[in-house]
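can u pls check wat happens w/ adenosine monophosphate
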Amino acid sequence: MSEHVLVINAGSSSLKYSLIDAGSGKAAGSGLVERIGEAEGRHLHRGPDGETSTDGKIDTHEDALRAALDAFETHGPSLDAVEVAAVGHRVVHGGSRFADPVLIDDELIDAVTALVPLAPLHNPANLEGMRVARRLFPELPQVAVFDTAFHQTLEPAAYTYAVPLAWRDDHDIRRYGFHGTSHAFVSAESARFLGRDPAGLNVIVLHLGNGCSAAAIRGGVSVDTSMGMTPLEGLVMGSRSGDLDPAIHAHLVRELGWTVEEVDHALNFDSGLKGLAGGNDFRELSTRVEAGDPVAQLAFDVYCHRIKKYVGAYYAVLGTVDAIVFTAGVGQNGADVRAASLGGLERLGIRIDAQRNDAAADGSRLVSADDSPVAVLVIPTNEEWQIAREALAVVGGS
Ligand code: AMP
């Protein structure tokens, strides 16, 4: 029987879990506990017999994980029957210290705690997930897989901000990049799809989900990426602004009397597509664009223009590009975004095939023309599988 890993992604008020068959990447069971600590929580569990949903108050992350274990027991698959080899945790920020997944022990917990100032919105919840899982599964090895790790290969020229040395030396201010598990998975899958050796392939990956990031990957190694010290930098996202003039921050503080927390919150949660058009769901945005809504059209144009700028920038960074790969919710489904972002780049050897691009399909596929020197691909991401494989490699599984 192939080995299974329980993958846990703990957010501030949610806990996502998947029991992954590390051989096939298939989820034997999975679920999401939402609104932890709120008046009414919700637990969705998917097992062999389909989906079950339970509403009710869920006070803590420990209660959430206990609810998940109960659901595995009641609705399957039984965790005893599948023999879980490890627990893999998604951890957002590993700073400069972690370029690889790491077995979780007290020292690792302390190290991730020390990184909280770099990721105050994410690392505390990830830590809580690790603590709770260690209490509930004391017998299982647990592994932290960092979202930043894949980008630790960036050269200083790519990761250094042009700010005073003391900021960089004393406060770890530099670019780290995120979505690393997705970029690693998708770039490796694109090599497999094209039947090429990853070591000889230059790829631009566009991860367009609720969070969005681009990465320039040379021979399987990340050389640049759009997110920075935090996930706020880069592309336009669901509710994050992406790139903007840092002076806007000071302007808001001076002109509106906002606190630093208010500015930070607004740029992370009220900006991006939500700020531009009032909502962060791309499906709704596309429907509005089709209906001729000019507000939605501007949001769409800003979103795609930013992607195109990064494609051009990363083309220059890489020198030659073999493939441009779209992934995540919008990247996999948004034919309109793919067409608009890469339109007009024929002189760069990028030619989308409209019929292939528009065809409704799941799975990995080519959407460029046969005579396009640069292959344009859609590759579904599978961060859980990547985490499972990396966790298993750490604990010595196959
Ligand atoms: P993710 O973070 O990868 O789950 O992606 C979430 C984003 O993908 C949301 O903006 C969704 O609206 C968008 N999305 C999901 N399905 C579709 C679809 N069929 N067409 C366009 N966007 C989609």
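DSSP finds 16 helices and 14 strands in the chain.
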